[in-house]
């Protein structure tokens, strides 16, 4: 599926991946957290080659946070339990510490009153924000966001985007696959346009959105504009 | 406008409606269902009373004296009620063991990786074998065959123990498949989310997948429980005096079959609460299960 990706992301950089469905955005993100098998090539995170054999996959995944389009909260657990599960079982934090961390994050993002609710009682936007908090509770070095607003009702999108913006402003290294072009232009340090499993073009958002080099990029952006999404 | 019913309907509050599909309103629905019920049972009663041989049936199966005596037991015949306690005992122990063994088999069957291939094969062979052999044959093999081997302590266990072993072996095969269906019904994205947080395969199974899987299969699990309750009667082939066997002993010596009715009633009485409990659990779990995971 991916035909050759050459990508470097600097610490604290926000890189947005744009492109049509099937262009490889999700696949690329899933390769980075080793969910998708990597056929050939290397992935290096914080100086460590995570695609080498004998690498402990579970350990690597602790420092890479990922949030999916379908929020994938655990329905049989409350919001608080969802967030504290991994810190307690993987990071071996005791319950008080884990809950303290979780409550602090929930409060920051305005979800404190939902801590004892089950996911089915939350709106899509709230669930997605909880999913982001769940990933953040592991204190990852990099956050991967895979079209996290695509499944949301339009009026719920803004609350999730503001959370992401806050993370970016705080210096979190982020790789974001998104259809929200306006958001990408606003938040990204760099935009990569993917097409058929390759990065066709990459550069600062102003360059990509106003004067793209490749015809295919122009075609994609024209369609987005025609659909009123930019 | 509401019409008032006659008979039992007088004492009832008019119901909102007998069911979702009904188009009748309150009082009228009560009238119709009351009349229907009365007619229905009147016809049944007429058939029962007027059928040829009904007097003999009443005497042989429903005679109050024998109903009571078989329930309590006599000097020479065992009490069906007391014998039923053995069924309950066998059921209680077997059920716990089955739930554990079946879970082990189901989990082993799902372990990926080439090194675990033989384990997966054994799990599959186990379920095939013990779902294929009739329970009564397994009882014979375990209950008569093993003692006949004279192999140390294993050959000198009680009939009841052999019975429990046979029940556990057979039912674990069925319940393992129920667990497996539950595990496979939990969407892979749940496991993916758990693994992405850094949880290991076992942690994901234990904290995320299995809790959801087990909740989902509670109805078929309880269904198997109900079957197990009844199959405890088969342990009698090994000689134990459980309720059905006690009923048979009474029936053979007294030439009255009220004991069978007593035994049947005891089985039914213990099964009905479980069936209603199952219904409640299904309803409650359905409400809970509008999950946040859109998958």
Question: How does the SSE layout of this entry go?
Answer:
The complex is a heterodimer of chains A (230) and B (295).
Chain A: E1 14-19, H1 25-32, E2 44-45, E3 48-49, H2 57-62, E4 64-67, H3 79-89, H4 95-108, H5 124-136, E5 142-146, H6 154-169, E6 173-177, H7 181-187, E7 190-195, E8 198-203, H8 205-210, H9 215-226
Parallel strand pairs in A: 1-6, 1-7, 4-5, 5-6
Antiparallel strand pairs in A: 2-3, 7-8
Helix pairs in contact in A: 3-4, 3-5, 5-6
Chain B: H1 26-50, H2 54-62, H3 64-72, H4 80-109, H5 117-132, H6 135-149, H7 159-185, H8 188-196, H9 201-216, H10 218-231, H11 243-254, H12 258-288
Task: Please explain how this structure is put together.
- The complex is a heterodimer of chains A (230) and B (295).
- Chain A has a domain at 14-72 and 141-226: 3-Layer(aba) Sandwich (Rossmann fold), CATH 3.40.50.
- In chain A, 40% of the residues lie in helices and 16% in strands.
- Chain A has helices spanning 25-32, 57-62, 79-89, 95-108, 124-136, 154-169, 181-187, 205-210, 215-226; strands spanning 14-19, 44-45, 48-49, 64-67, 142-146, 173-177, 190-195, 198-203.
- In chain A, strands 4-5-6-1-7-8 form a six-stranded mixed β-sheet, with helices on both faces. In chain A, strands 2-3 form a two-stranded antiparallel ribbon.
- In chain A, helix 3 (79-89) runs parallel beside helix 5 (124-136).
- The longest helix of chain A is centred in the last third of the chain and has 16 residues, at 154-169.
- Chain A starts with 13 loop residues before the first strand and ends with a helix.
- The model of chain A has no long low-confidence stretch (mean pLDDT 91).
- Chain B folds into two domains: 7-51; 69-288, MetI-like fold.
- Chain B contains twelve helices and no strands.
- The interface between A and B is medium-sized, with 31 and 25 residues.
């Amino acid at each position: 599926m991916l035909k050759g990706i050459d990508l470097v992301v600097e610490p604290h950089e926000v890189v947005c991946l744009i492109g049509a469905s099937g262009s490889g955005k999700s696949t690329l993100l899933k390769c980075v957290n080793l969910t998708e098998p990597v056929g050939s090539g290397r992935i290096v995170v914080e100086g460590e080659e995570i695609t080498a054999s004998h690498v402990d996959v579970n350990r690597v995944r602790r420092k890479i946070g990922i949030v999916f389009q379908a929020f994938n909260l655990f329905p049989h657990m409350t919001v608080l339990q969802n967030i504290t599960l991994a810190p307690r079982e993987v990071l071996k934090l005791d319950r008080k510490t884990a809950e303290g961390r979780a409550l602090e994050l929930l409060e920051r993002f305005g979800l404190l009153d939902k801590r004892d609710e089950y996911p089915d009682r939350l709106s899509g936007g709230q669930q997605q924000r909880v999913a982001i908090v769940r990933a953040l509770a592991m204190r990852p070095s990099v956050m991967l966001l895979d079209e996290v607003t695509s499944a949301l009702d339009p009026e719920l999108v803004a609350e999730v985007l503001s959370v992401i913006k806050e993370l970016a402003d705080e210096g979190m290294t982020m790789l974001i696959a998104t259809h929200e072009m306006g958001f990408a232009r606003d938040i990204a340090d760099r935009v990569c346009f993917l097409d058929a499993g390759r990065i066709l073009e990459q550069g600062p958002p102003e360059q990509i959105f106003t004067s793209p080099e490749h015809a295919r990029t122009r075609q994609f952006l024209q369609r987005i504009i025609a659909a009123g999404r930019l | 406008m509401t019409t008032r019913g006659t008979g039992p309907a007088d004492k009832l509050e008019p119901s909102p409606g007998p069911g979702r599909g009904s188009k009748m309103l309150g009082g009228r629905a009560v009238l119709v269902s009351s009349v229907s019920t009365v007619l229905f049972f009147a016809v049944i009663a007429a058939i029962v009373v007027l059928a040829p041989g009904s007097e003999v049936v009443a005497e042989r199966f429903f005679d109050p004296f024998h109903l009571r005596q078989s329930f309590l037991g006599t000097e020479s015949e065992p009490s069906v009620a007391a014998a039923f306690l053995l069924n309950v005992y066998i059921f209680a122990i077997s059920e716990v063991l089955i739930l554990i063994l079946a879970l082990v088999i189901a989990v082993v069957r799902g372990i990926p990786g080439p090194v675990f291939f033989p384990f997966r094969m054994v799990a599959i062979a186990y379920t095939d074998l013990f779902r294929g052999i009739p329970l009564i044959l397994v009882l014979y093999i375990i209950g008569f065959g093993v003692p006949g081997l004279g192999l140390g302590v294993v050959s000198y266990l009680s009939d009841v123990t052999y019975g429990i072993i046979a029940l556990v072996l057979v039912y674990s095969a069925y319940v393992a498949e129920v667990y497996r269906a539950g595990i496979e019904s939990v969407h892979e994205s749940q496991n993916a989310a758990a693994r992405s947080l850094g949880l290991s395969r076992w942690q994901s199974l234990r904290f995320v997948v299995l809790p959801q899987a087990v909740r989902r299969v509670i109805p078929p699990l309880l269904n198997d429980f109900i079957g197990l309750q009844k199959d405890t009667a088969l342990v009698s082939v090994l000689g134990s005096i459980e309720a059905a066997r006690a009923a048979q002993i009474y029936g053979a010596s007294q030439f009255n079959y009220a004991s069978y009715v007593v035994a049947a009633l005891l089985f039914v009485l213990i099964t009905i609460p479980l069936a209603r409990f199952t219904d409640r659990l299904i309803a409650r779990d359905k409400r809970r299960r509008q999950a946040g995971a859109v998958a």
